[in-house]
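Hi P.,

Sorry for the delay on this. The queue was packed all week, but I finally got your sequence through. Input first:
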Amino acid sequence: MGYYYYGFDPTVIYILPAILLALYAQIRVKSTYAKYEKVGNHRGLTGERAARMILDRNGLKNVKIGHVAGKLTDHYDPRTNIVNLSDGVYDNASIAAVGIAAHEVGHAIQHNLGYFPIKARNTILPVVQVSSQLALPLIILGFIFSAFSFFIEVGIILYAAVVAFQIITLPVELNASKRALRSVYELGCLDEEETRSAKRVLSAAALTYVAAAATAILQLLRLITIAGGGRRRD
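Then the structure:
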C-alpha cells in the first residue's frame, strides 16, 4: 500500500476539511437550538399546533402529527403520512419548536406537490440503503485480495450512489426550510423578528447537510485517488 507511510494515510487530508466542517455544523446546530428552544413565540403556539395550522392551510388535513422520543429526531414519514415531532418540539411553544415543526411540514408539502428533488431522492433511496452497506467493505476486500481488485471499482460505483443521494438531499432540505419560514410568517405563527430567529435555527441545521454532502464527495475523491494509485503500482 504505497499510499501509507509509517502507518499514516496521507489521503486523509482529502476529507479533513469536511470533517472540520461537520464538527462545526454539529456545534452550531446544538448551540443555536439550545438558545431558541428556550425563547417562547408571541402566540404561545406549540410545534404541534403550528404544524397543524400549516398542514390545514395547505389542504393536508389527512396528514397526521405524531410524537416521537428523542432530541431533534423530527421527521416526516411519507409511508404513514405522519409528521413526527420530537419531545422538545411537539408540545414546546418556543421559536425553535415552531421552526422545526414547520420544516417537517415542508416535506409533507413537497410530497403532496410532487416536488422533483424529493421524488428523485426517494427513488434512489432503496439503492443507497444497500450500497452504503456494501461500498466500503467491497473496497477493503479489493485492497486486501489483489485477485478481487474489481471489487474496488464496484465499491466506488456503489459509493457514488451515496454521494448522489447526499447531493440531492441539499435542495430538498433547503426548500423545506424556505417553505417553513414563509408559512410561519404568512400565517402569523411567528412575527418578523421571530421568523429571523427561526431562520437561524434552520440554517444551522442545513449546514449539517452541506457538511454531509461535502464529506461524501471528498471521500469519493479520496477512494478514487487510492484506487488509481493501486492500479499504477500494479
